[in-house]
Amino acid sequence: MQITPIPTATFGATVTGLRLADLDDAGFAALHAAWLQHALLIFPGQHLSNAQQITFAKRFGPIERMGGDDIVAISNVKADGTVRQHTPAEWDDMMKVIVGNMAWHADSTYMPVMAQGAVFSAEVVPPTGGRTAFADMRAAWDALDDATRALVEQRSAHHSLKYSQSKLGHVQAEGSAYNGYGMDTTVTPLRPLVKVHPETGRKSLLIGRHAHAIPGLDAAESERFLEGLVDWACQAPRLVEHQWAAGDVVVWDNRCLLHRAEPWDLQLPRVMWHSRLAGNPATESATLV
Questions:
Q1: Distance between CA atoms of 113 and 109, rounded to whole angstroms?
Q2: Residues 10-67: pLDDT tens digits?
Q3: Residue 79, exposed/middle/buried by CB under 10 A (0-12, 13-18, 19+)?
Q4: Which of 52, 97, 120, 224 has its CA 20 to 30 A from that of 42?
Q5: What is the dihedral of CA 210, 229, 169, 272, to 10 degrees?
Q6: pLDDT digits (tens, 9 = 90+) for 84-108
Q7: Using one digit for the tens of pLDDT, what is the confidence trace for 162-171?
Q8: How far apart, in whole angstroms, are the C-alpha atoms of residue 36 and residue 252?
Q9: Is-contact 203 141, C-beta < 8 A?
Q10: CB 92: neighbour CB atoms within 10 A?
Q11: Is the pLDDT of residue 179 over 60?
Q12: CB atoms < 10 A from the CB of 217, how many?
């Protein structure tokens, strides 16, 4: 196993010289330690089957089953092999979720228990575009000036997928191709803007597109504050943009990173497979209101 840190960023590493499907316990222990250190691990050319990806993901702990599945396709390709309508007026709910995910976010912050991380793999990728970008919220916290740091530590925000998707005019339709996960919640989690990592003890910012409605601020002031914080935080050297090749696998730590899909020609197919790592209720639970 060779672990090569990404030299241009505050986080992330590329891992080669191993086969994830054949990893023994000692190898996984080393990999897990590297994951906690680097927060983002990139494994080129693994070509995992869905079953192999699920088996690997379960080594981190339980999977957060979105819609009852251990693995879900994040794809603009329908079950019949055709590409979904790509113009905004014709977007179905799945396309609205895909486009929504082009804004910075952490997974499942809108659920009572946010995700620990994710295993993500590429099956079909466009020739250009369609990268996934990641941003280091540990380094963002470290770089805050004292006044902003004190202000952020005093504040929390509500998180909602309905809120973030509403910016695209997304109200889930009856019989939607999207399974409704996160759009059917009846509670709005409240989470501090500063999160302490339960395994490393490092502080990071917990922000992103689902965060809104900071208690004590009006809606416009809250939105300006949160959007400004995201724009500032998600900049080099706290930034990694991964250009996918078919067969790549990425594992990221959702407890300290934001991520987003980058645009591509939506007439072209992009098929990705997502296994979401369930968070520990003792450390990833929100206040529910």
A1: 7
A2: 999 999 999 999 999 999 999 999 999 999 999 999 999 999 999 999 999 999 998 7
A3: exposed
A4: 97
A5: -60
A6: 988 888 888 888 889 999 999 999 9
A7: 999 888 876 7
A8: 9
A9: yes
A10: 16
A11: no
A12: 15
pLDDT tens for 225-242 read 999 999 999 999 999 999
Q: How many CA atoms lie within 13 A of 177 on its CB side?
A: 19
Q: Is the pLDDT of residue 267 over 90?
A: yes
- Mean pLDDT, the chain, rounded, equals 94
Instruction: Give every CB contact of residue 280 below 8 A, 6+ residues apart in sequence.
Output: 61, 113, 116, 198
Write down the residue that tokens 């906690």 correspond to. 36
Amino acid at 78: K
β-pair type (63-64, 211-212): unpaired
112 vs 61, 206, 286, CA distance in Å?
Answer: 18, 15, 6
pLDDT at 183 exceeding the cut of 90: no
**What tokens were used for 174?**
């009856």
What is residue 169's predicted lDDT score, i.e. its pLDDT?
A: 75
One DSSP character per residue, the chain reads -EEEE-TTSSS-EEEES--GGG--HHHHHHHHHHHHHHSEEEETT----HHHHHHHHHTTS-EE-BTTBSSEEEESB-TTSPBPP-SGGG--HHHHHHHHTTS-B-TTTTSSB---EEEEEEEE--SS---EEEEEHHHHHHHS-HHHHHHHHT-EEEE-HHHHHHTTT--PPTT-SS--TTTS----EEEESEEE-TTT--EEE--STTEE--TTS-HHHHHHHHHHHHHHHS-TTSEEEE---TT-EEEEETTTEEEEEPP--TTS--EEEEEEEPPPHHHHB-EE-
- Residues 113/279, Cβ–Cβ less than 8 Å: yes
pLDDT at 177 over 60: no
- Quote the pLDDT of residue 59: 98
